[in-house]
Specification:
Blueprint: H1 3-8, H2 12-24, H3 35-51
Helix pairs in contact: 2-3
Length: about 80
Protein backbone atom coordinates (compact mmCIF):
# COMPACT_ATOMS: atom_id res chain seq x y z
CA UNK A 1 0.00 0.00 0.00
CA UNK A 2 1.42 3.39 -0.95
CA UNK A 3 1.08 6.79 0.70
CA UNK A 4 -1.73 7.94 -1.61
CA UNK A 5 -3.92 4.94 -0.85
CA UNK A 6 -3.27 5.37 2.88
CA UNK A 7 -4.47 8.98 2.67
CA UNK A 8 -7.57 7.90 0.72
CA UNK A 9 -8.45 5.31 3.37
CA UNK A 10 -7.88 7.65 6.32
CA UNK A 11 -10.83 8.16 8.65
CA UNK A 12 -12.12 11.66 9.42
CA UNK A 13 -11.00 11.19 13.04
CA UNK A 14 -7.42 10.41 12.03
CA UNK A 15 -7.48 13.34 9.60
CA UNK A 16 -8.57 15.77 12.32
CA UNK A 17 -5.92 14.46 14.75
CA UNK A 18 -3.16 14.79 12.15
CA UNK A 19 -4.33 18.27 11.19
CA UNK A 20 -4.35 19.34 14.84
CA UNK A 21 -0.88 17.86 15.36
CA UNK A 22 0.43 19.86 12.39
CA UNK A 23 -1.24 23.05 13.64
CA UNK A 24 0.04 22.72 17.22
CA UNK A 25 3.38 21.06 16.45
CA UNK A 26 2.74 18.27 18.94
CA UNK A 27 0.86 15.01 19.34
CA UNK A 28 -2.25 14.79 21.56
CA UNK A 29 -0.03 13.42 24.36
CA UNK A 30 2.02 16.68 24.21
CA UNK A 31 5.10 15.08 22.60
CA UNK A 32 6.54 17.49 19.98
CA UNK A 33 6.54 16.45 16.32
CA UNK A 34 9.89 16.21 14.60
CA UNK A 35 10.32 18.16 11.37
CA UNK A 36 9.98 14.92 9.41
CA UNK A 37 6.81 13.91 11.27
CA UNK A 38 5.27 17.33 10.72
CA UNK A 39 6.10 17.18 7.03
CA UNK A 40 4.64 13.69 6.60
CA UNK A 41 1.50 14.57 8.58
CA UNK A 42 0.97 17.69 6.50
CA UNK A 43 1.38 15.70 3.29
CA UNK A 44 -1.16 13.14 4.52
CA UNK A 45 -3.62 15.91 5.46
CA UNK A 46 -3.29 17.56 2.04
CA UNK A 47 -3.69 14.25 0.18
CA UNK A 48 -6.75 13.41 2.28
CA UNK A 49 -8.35 16.77 1.48
CA UNK A 50 -7.81 16.19 -2.23
CA UNK A 51 -9.03 12.58 -2.16
CA UNK A 52 -12.19 13.56 -0.23
CA UNK A 53 -12.79 16.50 -2.60
CA UNK A 54 -12.93 19.02 0.22
CA UNK A 55 -13.69 22.47 -1.26
CA UNK A 56 -10.57 24.55 -1.88
CA UNK A 57 -11.74 27.25 0.55
CA UNK A 58 -11.77 24.72 3.42
CA UNK A 59 -8.41 23.10 2.64
CA UNK A 60 -5.32 23.50 4.76
CA UNK A 61 -3.25 26.48 3.72
CA UNK A 62 -5.97 28.25 1.72
CA UNK A 63 -5.42 32.00 1.63
CA UNK A 64 -8.25 34.19 0.42
CA UNK A 65 -7.21 36.81 -2.10
CA UNK A 66 -8.89 39.59 -0.14
CA UNK A 67 -11.46 42.18 -1.09
CA UNK A 68 -9.29 44.30 -3.41
CA UNK A 69 -10.37 44.15 -7.03
CA UNK A 70 -7.82 43.20 -9.66
CA UNK A 71 -8.15 46.57 -11.38
CA UNK A 72 -7.53 48.51 -8.15
CA UNK A 73 -4.00 49.82 -7.87
CA UNK A 74 -2.00 50.29 -4.71
CA UNK A 75 -1.04 53.94 -4.18
CA UNK A 76 2.68 54.65 -4.23
CA UNK A 77 4.47 56.95 -1.86
CA UNK A 78 7.51 58.94 -2.93
CA UNK A 79 9.98 59.97 -0.29
CA UNK A 80 12.07 63.12 -0.60
CA UNK A 81 15.80 62.81 -1.21
CA UNK A 82 18.02 63.17 1.82
CA UNK A 83 19.35 66.46 0.36
CA UNK A 84 15.84 67.94 0.50
CA UNK A 85 15.48 67.37 4.23
Amino acid sequence: MNFDSLAQNMTPDIYSRLREAVELGRWPNQVPLSKEQRSLCLEAVLKYEISQQIPEQRRTGFVEQGCRSKSETIPTVTLPDASEL
